[in-house]
Write a structure and sequence with these properties.
The complex is a heterodimer of chains A (about 400) and B (about 300).
Chain A lengths: L4 E5 L3 H9 L4 E5 L14 H13 L3 E6 L11 H11 L3 E4 L2 H10 L4 E4 L8 H9 L4 E3 L6 H8 L5 E8 L11 H6 L16 E4 L19 E3 L4 H6 L4 E4 L6 H20 L9 H7 L6 E2 L25 E9 L4 E6 L3 E2 L3 E6 L3 E6 L3 E2 L8 E2 L5 E5 L9 E4 L2
Parallel strand pairs in A: 1-2, 1-10, 2-3, 3-4, 4-5, 5-6, 6-7, 7-10, 9-11
Antiparallel strand pairs in A: 7-9, 12-13, 12-20, 13-19, 14-18, 15-16, 15-20, 17-19
Helix pairs in contact in A: 1-2, 1-9, 2-3, 3-4, 9-10
Chain B lengths: L2 E5 L3 H6 L5 E4 L14 H14 L2 E6 L8 H11 L6 E4 L3 H7 L7 E3 L8 H9 L4 E3 L6 H9 L4 E15 L3 H9 L12 E5 L6 E6 L2 E11 L4 H6 L4 E5 L5 H20 L1 H6 L1 H9 L7 E2 L13
Parallel strand pairs in B: 1-2, 1-11, 2-3, 3-4, 4-5, 5-6, 6-7, 7-11, 10-12
Antiparallel strand pairs in B: 7-10, 8-9, 9-10
Helix pairs in contact in B: 3-4, 9-11
Classes of the chains: A alpha/beta (about 400), B alpha/beta (about 300).
Chain lengths: ~400, ~300
């Protein structure tokens, strides 16, 4: 059985390290140029170099999104930028503009070109078109069902990448200009204002309002969660499973990546004996604060995949701290506080490998070893006793 | 000279419009967002009419194609190969792959709505040997001119009509009423509805059909005062889109564009000096949809912060 790649997002170097430690085989990041998701804290070239160096040490790969649909003035220096990415040690660029694709093949032939989902590729002929242009992998449109993915996979030479978790466009990606028209911000050049999630009223030609008086008509989609379909996607031979969310927190990245890593490994270890367990869902719900669904994977989305109810779910467990260091001799952990916590609280430590351990917070000390009982300041560095070994980048969650 | 191409509202429109240079026609399940869909027999009839009148026929096969539809598009192209048509408008690159088999590459017009925004993309498609590309509606006149000046390939742009700004495969109206557990008060398909966003006054036409849900700009794009630029820089064709228009409205609009182009050709200065009059004439059309110059002079914001 082919074990697919688990591909995770990262908005900065810390998130990137977390993604790799918690089990991502590859991480996609945005540079300062030519990338969508402009508001995701994007990587400078020297950050990209550090990312590639770190990834190499952990046998992981770095992909860089250069996926804008360029305007004339964005065409300058594409070649130089690609050469610089090559110097950094990037394994692939994720593109949608034909010129950027063409240039990448020409100037950095050893870097793979992956076709972004922004091209909304929905069939094998279109995939073969891009394959003939030198594109080695196609990120499928999020409109495809599992059945279609299976069928497509049998007819193409290009690698296939499928979104499994995170935000969804409700429109065919790359073909939506709500943002351009409503806010002048260019959706295909990093400015998407998420206008599909705004509130609308719906009328007919006689100006009669059809939408509910109490609520509003909404175009937006629930986020994607394909946990239950991972075994099918692996069976279909999908080459890469992609988690979306370069703006997400380290808690989210650690939890979602860690859970999918565990699920993929569990299934591949013994597909015949694998039984789906709710523990995967339960784990992700600790960090997930948006409503999720299976998108189009089980067929054309219905009302159940739409985001009418804007109530956001709160994660069941709160991220209270990140382990920076551990003194094994004295069993003292150095923690960076991420949410208020105090002595006496029960804490879950979530570590790479889907490991979970529990302890009760005893005395808390600040950096000058003053006993403080409450860690109340954001990003405050505190020390506390943890009876078992912990490691940098382990996650502390408040446990009920 | 600049071709004036219309996507018509009916067969009778075509019969009465003998002065434009061509029509965009298509069938259900193959074409997207057309003002009217024709049957195979009607298409043959239209080809005959147009041949006699020396008008061009462009077939819209611009659907986003899912895997199981490939076979029917393959058959469709095979049929089109036997018809005397001037072009095939497509939005999914599968068509390019399939069309090779039937030697149709040189009839292909790529219109992916939003993707053709720079001259290098045009160059990329020129290398593929296709006939023409349609430039995105979301770029400026200066950008259009820069692209046109490269002369890489024939260019088509929207001349007058609604800008499609959203296409979802989902039946968003149907889904919404299912969520409310109410009967859908709109006819399931093809009744044009509109949306108003809570902080805005604009009315955005919305259409749910077999291909999903489409949302359009509140105002039509109108280029009547910039035809000189298109002609000077050798843009090949402009489209007048009949969607959301009555036969009469579309006919009047087409007449005014036709007159403007003819005026320019016979007396350039007359056109240049009377630009405002064409706009005034458009405004006089009964119930004409609001129009403006779209993105021609409005550069969209890169990145967005």
């Amino acid at each position: 059985m082919l074990k697919p790649e688990l591909l995770a997002p990262a908005g900065d170097l810390e998130k990137l390290k977390i993604a790799i430690l918690y089990g991502a085989d590859a991480v996609f990041i945005g540079g300062k140029e030519f990338s969508l998701r402009a508001r995701a804290s994007n990587f400078s070239l020297s950050d990209i170099k550090s990312a590639c160096d770190y990834a190499k040490l952990h046998n992981a790969k770095i992909y860089v999104t250069t996926n804008i649909i360029a305007h004339n003035e964005n065409l300058k220096n594409v070649d130089k930028y690609l050469l610089a990415l090559n110097e950094c040690g990037v394994s692939a660029v994720i593109c949608s503009d034909p010129y950027i694709i063409e240039t990448a093949r020409k100037v950095v032939p050893n870097i793979e070109v992956h076709l972004s989902t922004q091209q909304s590729t929905t069939n094998s002929e279109a995939i073969n078109f891009w394959y003939e242009q030198g594109v080695s992998r196609v990120v499928l449109a999020r409109e495809l069902s599992l059945k279609e993915i299976k069928l497509v996979k049998t007819k193409v030479k290009a690698d296939i990448e499928v979104f499994i978790h995170g935000g969804m466009c409700v429109s065919y990606s790359g073909r939506c200009t709500l943002s351009n028209n409503m806010t002048d911000r260019d959706a295909n050049r990093g400015g998407c204002a998420h206008s599909c999630r705004w509130n609308y009223r719906l009328f007919n030609q006689n100006d009669e309002m059809l939408s509910a008086k109490s609520g509003s008509f909404n175009l937006g989609s629930k986020d994607l969660n394909a946990l239950r379909l991972i075994p099918d996607l692996i069976d279909a031979g999908v080459d890469s499973l992609k988690i979306e969310g370069r703006m997400k927190s380290i808690h989210y990245i650690a939890t979602v990546v860690g859970t999918y890593r565990k699920l993929i490994d569990d299934y591949c270890e013994n597909p015949q004996k694998f039984v789906f367990d709710d523990k995967y869902f339960n784990e992700i719900s600790k960090a997930e604060n948006r409503q999720t669904s299976t998108g189009a994977l089980l067929g054309k989305p219905t009302e159940n995949e739409q985001l009418y109810n804007v109530r956001t779910e709160t994660p069941t467990q709160e991220f209270i701290g990140l382990v920076l260091d551990y003194d094994e001799l004295n069993k003292i952990a150095t923690i960076e506080q991420r949410n208020y916590f105090q002595s006496g609280e029960r804490v879950e430590v979530f570590s790479p490998g889907f490991q979970k351990n529990y302890f009760k917070v005893g005395n808390i000390y600040d950096e000058n070893n003053n006993n403080i009982d409450i860690a109340r300041h954001p990003r405050q560095i505190v020390k506390l006793k943890i009876p078992f070994p912990v490691h940098p980048y382990d996650i502390l969650r408040r446990s009920s | 000279m600049l071709e004036l191409i219309v996507s018509p509202t009916s067969l009778s429109f075509i019969k009465s419009c003998d002065f434009c240079d061509g029509f965009i026609i298509g069938e259900k399940d193959k074409g997207l967002r057309l003002a009217h869909y024709f049957t195979k027999n009607e298409i043959k009839e239209i080809i005959d009419i147009c041949k006699k009148r020396k008008q061009k026929v462009y077939i819209a096969a611009n659907k986003i194609i899912h895997e199981t539809e490939l076979i029917s598009f393959d058959n469709y192209l095979k049929q089109l190969a036997d018809l005397e048509i001037d072009g095939i408008i497509f939005g999914d690159l599968a068509i390019y792959q399939l069309a090779k088999k039937y030697q149709l590459t040189n009839k292909l017009i790529y219109n992916p709505e939003t993707y053709i925004t720079n001259y290098e993309s045009v160059h990329f498609f020129a290398q593929l040997g296709i006939k023409r590309v349609s430039i995105a509606k979301e770029i400026t006149l200066d950008d259009i001119i820069t692209i046109a000046n490269k002369k890489y390939l024939e260019l088509d742009i929207l001349g007058h009509g609604a800008i499609n700004m959203f296409h979802s495969m989902r039946d968003l109206v149907t889904n919404y009423f299912r969520f409310l557990k109410q009967d859908n008060p709109s006819l399931h398909h093809n009744e044009s509805l509109y949306l108003i966003e809570e902080k805005r006054a604009d009315k955005y036409p919305l259409l749910e059909d077999e291909a999903g849900t489409h949302v359009f700009s509140a105002s039509d794009l109108c280029t009547i005062e910039y035809l000189d630029k298109f002609i000077e820089h050798q843009v090949t064709s402009i489209r007048i889109d009949g969607i959301f228009k009555s036969c009469q409205e579309l006919l009047e609009i087409t007449k005014i564009y036709h007159k403007a182009i003819s005026d320019y050709c016979s007396n350039k200065n007359y056109y240049l000096e009377n630009k405002a009059k064409y706009t005034e004439a458009l405004l006089k059309i009964e119930n004409i949809r609001p129009f403006n110059d779209g993105f021609l002079f409005k550069k969209t914001i890169y990145k967005g912060d």
